DNA sequence: GGATGTCACGAAAACGTTTTCGTGTTAAAA
DNA sequence: TTTTAACACGAAAACGTTTTCGTGACATCC
């Protein structure tokens, strides 16, 4: 149960000063070869490694980035983390996570905890509650203290910072266009309430695709679901709503859903109503997660390249951290990640 | 772009000493009411928060726990993290993650990075490569430096530390017993190679259940799959192997799979061969993830209570960190999490 | 022999805290 | 008046580094 060895201890053992030890280990020219050898051998023997905390304090740099997300048990978010982690590690950074659980106060508390010196910068996706309240003071305060933020996926125009977003609009548009090209004439959309920016954009993409193909959108084909309800718990409610949509609109032969779960549920309901997929009805989802891949029939979906988002976010943040042009005025960029339509069995 | 304010700055502004400021903020009796008020008001105005790094250095305690897992894009692991995070946050700790990607060297490097002062203790699950190599020096070294480790799920008896494990043996046994009770007479198992401890235990549970019901196990009903292959990529290979099993053993009317994916693939193959689930063949999986829940038919499965595992692991670690009975000799415990059979549509 | 330079090392400050131990001032007790 | 005690505060050390600057011992040069 020996504690980790420190410079001070090495110095005492070898009867030199702390400075000498430090310099010897960093191969300074100031130190004689003899002493260097001696110190380095000793350090190796006792497996000396500099204490990160002390370094952080000294350098005022922790080499750690904080990531705040609404939820981790979620394919998209965990994939983003994976991307962040890969890049961060490669560039010598650690990753510390905070979960907001879609709650405003947890988001604030978590950010405050981390902002007090624990990390150098944030990568985050805004919680639903924060989006509803539209209270963004914590982001601005953090940034005004010189801590950079990179937002991804769920972003808002009100805040001035680097952003990485998915091209939700065009992703949705491409998906719906595909349905049309495949012969669908009555296409429904399963989406979320408008305050979720991504839901809104995907809905717009849907409308645009219809318009470009001279199809008049119908209000009763647009189902805006309340996603503050926990999916997993209110699955029945979801099914009921979708079933009603199908029953009221028997001519529906195409469905575009803004997430995997809505899409899978739609397929389930369709099958229950005796419809065959993709013969009678074709379905496209959003987010390329495990569900899409392993569903039967497997789901055609819009991939957001979550891993790539994480990687780019990490690069963006670290670049900013390491440029440190305190003088040069801040210039923020918004990177758009293109989506990709992955065709599987749920479309013709 | 004002930096975070420090004690020193407050002291200078108010023309008192740093000690006075520190004491005033902590409401020390040494300081007069007047001064306290003044200092506290000023601190509040400038939103003073003590610097975590400085505190960590001073207290030799970071209030951060490190978690090393093989993969994060995985329902089980992300659920465990979620559990850890919940408890950690509640008890005033942060969580920092490291991914080993099932690689020995990444596991070692990640642990070394974190062990140098960044965290107070580890929660981890061993990577497959480490299990194969059976090289556990990094765990022992870390512990010998006084940094506690709590292992979960993938553990080895060779290492002396706190452990949280799933009752894989009994979970599997219960599942297979259920199949037998439901009338299955020829039950196949889809499992992994034996070096994965959990795969081995589940296989043993399967055998035990058969034995207790006087069924003689047959070697060709036991399919040990190579899980070093990436599931997602080698899906075809998986299907082929399972298909062969079914074809060679047409009497199979029950399948126990040691994970979700094997189970789903089995269902897919069965359907392809014209078998109805659960009428002709019943299937039970392991791990209660999204796939089981949303598959059609939904999958009966053995739930491991991943969230609970994370929570218990966090409690165990933090308890140890906060007891600090340096003197009292170490006593390690192994907690067993009971499994639960969640019945859905894939069984009668 | 004195000035200068090189070499090898140590002292000390700094990062931002907390805490122990003084210490000067004032009021109360003797 | 002198002693004592309470009060309110400051100095300094400590956590473990890195780095700047200073310095003593020698060797070199004119």
From TrEMBL, chains A, B:
<dbReference type="Pfam" id="PF13377">
    <property type="entry name" value="Peripla_BP_3"/>
</dbReference>
<dbReference type="Pfam" id="PF00356">
    <property type="entry name" value="LacI"/>
</dbReference>
<keyword id="KW-0804">Transcription</keyword>
<dbReference type="InterPro" id="IPR001387">
    <property type="entry name" value="Cro/C1-type_HTH"/>
</dbReference>
<dbReference type="InterPro" id="IPR000843">
    <property type="entry name" value="HTH_LacI"/>
</dbReference>
<keyword id="KW-0805">Transcription regulation</keyword>
<dbReference type="InterPro" id="IPR046335">
    <property type="entry name" value="LacI/GalR-like_sensor"/>
</dbReference>
<feature type="domain" description="HTH lacI-type">
    <location>
        <begin position="5"/>
        <end position="59"/>
    </location>
</feature>
<dbReference type="GO" id="GO:0000976">
    <property type="term" value="F:transcription cis-regulatory region binding"/>
</dbReference>
<keyword id="KW-0238">DNA-binding</keyword>
<dbReference type="InterPro" id="IPR028082">
    <property type="entry name" value="Peripla_BP_I"/>
</dbReference>
<feature type="domain" description="HTH cro/C1-type">
    <location>
        <begin position="2"/>
        <end position="53"/>
    </location>
</feature>
<dbReference type="GO" id="GO:0003700">
    <property type="term" value="F:DNA-binding transcription factor activity"/>
</dbReference>
<protein>
    <submittedName>
        <fullName>LacI family DNA-binding transcriptional regulator</fullName>
    </submittedName>
</protein>
<dbReference type="InterPro" id="IPR010982">
    <property type="entry name" value="Lambda_DNA-bd_dom_sf"/>
</dbReference>
């Amino acid at each position: 149960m020996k504690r980790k060895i420190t410079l001070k201890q090495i110095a005492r053992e070898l009867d030199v000063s702390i400075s000498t030890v430090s310099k010897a280990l960093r191969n300074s020219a100031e130190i004689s070869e003899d002493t260097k050898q001696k110190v380095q051998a000793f350090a190796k023997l006792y497996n000396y490694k500099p204490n990160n905390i002390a370094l952080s304090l000294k350098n005022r740099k922790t080499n750690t980035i904080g990531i705040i997300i609404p939820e981790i048990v979620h394919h998209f978010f965990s994939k983003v983390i994976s991307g962040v982690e890969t890049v961060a590690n490669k560039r010598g950074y650690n990753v510390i996570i905070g979960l907001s659980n879609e709650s405003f106060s947890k988001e604030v508390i978590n950010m405050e905890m981390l902002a007090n010196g624990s990390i150098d910068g944030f990568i985050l996706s805004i919680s639903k509650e924060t989006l509803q309240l539209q209270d963004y003071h914590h982001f601005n305060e953090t940034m005004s203290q010189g801590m950079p933020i990179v937002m991804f996926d769920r972003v808002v125009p009100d805040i001035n910072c680097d952003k990485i977003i998915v091209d939700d609009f065009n992703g949705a548009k491409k998906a719906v266009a595909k349905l049309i090209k495949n012969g669908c004439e009555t296409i429904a959309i399963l989406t979320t309430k408008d305050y979720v920016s991504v839901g809104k954009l995907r809905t717009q993409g849907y409308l645009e695709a219809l318009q470009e193909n001279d199809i008049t959108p119908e209000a009763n084909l647009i189902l805006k679901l309340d996603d503050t309800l926990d999916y997993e718990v209110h699955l029945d409610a979801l099914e009921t709503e979708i079933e009603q949509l199908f029953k009221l609109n028997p001519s529906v032969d195409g469905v575009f859903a803004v997430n995997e779960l809505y899409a899978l549920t739609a397929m389930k309901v369709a099958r229950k109503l005796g419809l065959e997929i993709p013969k009678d009805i074709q379905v496209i989802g959003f987010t390329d997660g495990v569900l899409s891949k392993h569903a039967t029939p497997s789901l055609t979906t819009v991939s957001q390249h979550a891993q790539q988002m994480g990687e780019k976010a990490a690069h963006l943040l670290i670049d900013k951290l390491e440029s440190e042009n305190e003088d040069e005025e801040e210039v923020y960029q918004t990177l758009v990640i293109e989506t990709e339509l992955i065709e599987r069995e749920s479309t013709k």
